[in-house]
Amino acid sequence: MTVLTLAGLWNSGPQHWQTHWEKQHGWTRAPHRDWETPDREEWVRELDAAIAACPQAPVLAAHSLSCTLVTWWAAAHRHDAARRVAGAFLVAPSDVDAPSYPDCTTGFQPMQLASLPFPSVVVASEDDIYVSTERARQFAQAWGSQLHLIGAAGHINGDAGYGPWPEGEALLLEFCRRVQR
User: Fold this and answer.
1) What is the pLDDT of residues 143-177, one digit of tens each?
2) Entry pTM
3) Side-chain half-sphere of 54: how many Cα atoms within 13 Å?
4) Does the first or last residue of the chain, that is N or C, have fewer Cβ atoms within 10 Å of its Cβ?
5) Rounded to an integer, what distance in angstroms lies between the CA atom of residue 3 and that of residue 21?
6) For 3-179, CATH number?
7) End-to-end alpha carbon distance in the chain
8) All residues at 6 or more sequence positions from 134 whose CB lies less than 8 Å from its CB, including other chains
9) 50-59 pLDDT per residue, tens
10) Contact 120, 90 (CB under 8 A)
11) Domains of the chain: which residue ranges?
12) In angstroms, rounded to a whole number, what is the distance separating the alpha carbons of residues 98 and 177?
């Protein structure tokens, strides 16, 4: 199974679970030009190119703002998204509509709440500063995603202690087995 990792705002550093998993499995991180002030339209085009470069329909392993990116990409490619992507593993989706969300992004508001045309899982924390549990539930329901709450885990990143994160890796690998074509 091809897994394409999608880092969030400010990228995923060396202690982030995405970085660990990329090294361990040889997975590729989708490139992005501007991690500090991303523009949705540009990033959707970059994601589309990264998906097109995959040898088979990938599972997208997204973190934070890139969960929202996946929803905007799916909306822009509704006619062929289900054929081009096997599924999405959406960890710690950020609520770009929240007043507390950083104002350094362009075009991600309002949250895209359309059902995703491929299988998906939302993994969320109960004390994430970028999304409330209630909003994470709302996103999972709107996107047609299975919701997996992991307790008080912060933003589920390296700073919150989620480096190698074997439990998350097991969740992703099980999800890959379920959606493998």
Assistant:
1) 999 999 999 999 999 999 999 999 999 999 999 99
2) 0.97
3) 24
4) C
5) 10
6) 3.40.50.1820
7) 8
8) none
9) 999 999 999 9
10) yes
11) 3-179
12) 34
